[in-house]
Specification:
It is built from two helices and six strands. By secondary structure, it is of the alpha/beta class. The strands form two sheets. Strands 2, 3, 4 and 5 form a four-stranded mixed β-sheet that branches. A hairpin with a 6-residue loop joins strand 4 and strand 5. The longest helix has 7 residues. The chain is globular, with a radius of gyration of 13 Å.
Length: 103
C-alpha cells in the first residue's frame, strides 16, 4: 500500500506479490530499468528497506508520476519500503498467479 493509505482490513486491500531477489536479478532476466536504480549488494537486512516496482505497480499507485522516492508497505507487516527504482513490466516481473500484481 502506498504511504498514507489506510489499511482496509484483511482481504480488502489490493493484492500485490512481493518477491525477494538478488542484486543481479534484473540484469539476469534482462528487465530494463526505467527510473532510479535496481538493488545493489549494499541493500541488506541491516539497511533501510527498499523496493523496485514494475511499471504496472507504478501506474496503479502513482499514475503519471515518478515513483522513485515514494514509499510502499505490505499490509501484513506495515514496514515502509522506499521505492528506489522501477522497471518495465515483463513476463519475468509478473506474478505466476493470475490477478496478482508484483512489487
Amino acid at each position: 500500500m502506498p504511504e498514507g493509505t489506510v489499511c482496509q482490513g484483511l482481504g480488502k486491500d489490493p493484492t500485490t506479490a512481493l518477491r525477494q531477489v538478488s542484486a543481479d536479478y534484473f540484469d539476469t532476466v534482462r528487465t530494463p530499468i526505467l527510473k532510479g536504480r535496481v538493488f545493489t549488494v549494499r541493500d541488506t537486512a541491516s539497511t533501510a528497506p527498499v523496493v523496485v516496482v514494475n511499471q504496472t505497480i507504478a501506474d496503479r499507485y502513482w499514475p503519471g508520476q515518478n515513483p522513485v522516492g515514494k514509499h510502499l508497505a505490505n499490509s501484513r507487516d506495515m514496514i515502509q519500503r522506499e521505492v528506489v527504482g522501477f522497471v518495465l513490466t515483463s513476463n519475468s516481473t509478473l506474478s505466476p498467479r493470475a490477478n496478482v500484481e508484483e512489487l
